[in-house]
Amino acid sequence: MAFELAVFDMAGTTVHDPDLVTQALTEALGAFGCQVSAAKVRLLMGYTKPAAIRSLLSEHDFAADDAQVDAVHADFVERMLHCYRNGNDVRPMAGAEDVFAQLRGAGIRVAVNTAFSRDIAETLIGRFGWRTRGLIDDATSADQVAEGRPAPDMIRQLMLRNGVTDPRRVVKVGDTEVDIREGRRAGCGLVIAVTTGAYGREQLEPYQPDALLDSLAELPPLLASFVPGQTR
């Protein structure tokens, strides 16, 4: 069965991010008085950031009502926008742009989705010129759907906008366990995890992705040789 759409996560998957998300979220919580370890924050990578903030505030016995969550999230967004606009180490993940071009050349539409808000996602897309250079077909973010990961809403939105009706013709690629669960809940024909971001191989294997890659460069040959029901 030919694939029609590939949906890629951003930070840690297609965007090289030297732990800036963890740092910004830790600092935003700290500014509110909630001291959280970076290790705790990393456990929630891939989830929508308001949901992660709410969970961390509650875990540390802070008020986690909408007003408090919104205040911390607004601080986080400002920190991320500054980092992503100005950070010298922020760049496309090695091999990502070549993979985008190869997939589009093979007739597979390419989209990115993210647990970030739209303003952060569009800052990265604009900085890298992914739309203007014809490297991606579409993008969405958690604040543009009813429910973020692990709900399948973002993938279904991208399918609808790109004329894909069969989820088995969709490939989902991400670097966290919640990316894997998102792909499964959407019914994607292939759910792939990469070890380039938040989690290592030993952390991702228990969630049983269809394939576990150490580099995005491994993706095109995998798709070319893919046999349904076979895992790698």
UniProtKB/TrEMBL annotation:
<dbReference type="GO" id="GO:0006281">
    <property type="term" value="P:DNA repair"/>
</dbReference>
<dbReference type="GO" id="GO:0008967">
    <property type="term" value="F:phosphoglycolate phosphatase activity"/>
</dbReference>
<dbReference type="Pfam" id="PF13419">
    <property type="entry name" value="HAD_2"/>
</dbReference>
<keyword id="KW-0378">Hydrolase</keyword>
<dbReference type="GO" id="GO:0005829">
    <property type="term" value="C:cytosol"/>
</dbReference>
<dbReference type="InterPro" id="IPR041492">
    <property type="entry name" value="HAD_2"/>
</dbReference>
<dbReference type="InterPro" id="IPR023214">
    <property type="entry name" value="HAD_sf"/>
</dbReference>
<protein>
    <submittedName>
        <fullName>Phosphonatase-like hydrolase</fullName>
    </submittedName>
</protein>
<dbReference type="InterPro" id="IPR050155">
    <property type="entry name" value="HAD-like_hydrolase_sf"/>
</dbReference>
<dbReference type="InterPro" id="IPR036412">
    <property type="entry name" value="HAD-like_sf"/>
</dbReference>
<dbReference type="InterPro" id="IPR023198">
    <property type="entry name" value="PGP-like_dom2"/>
</dbReference>
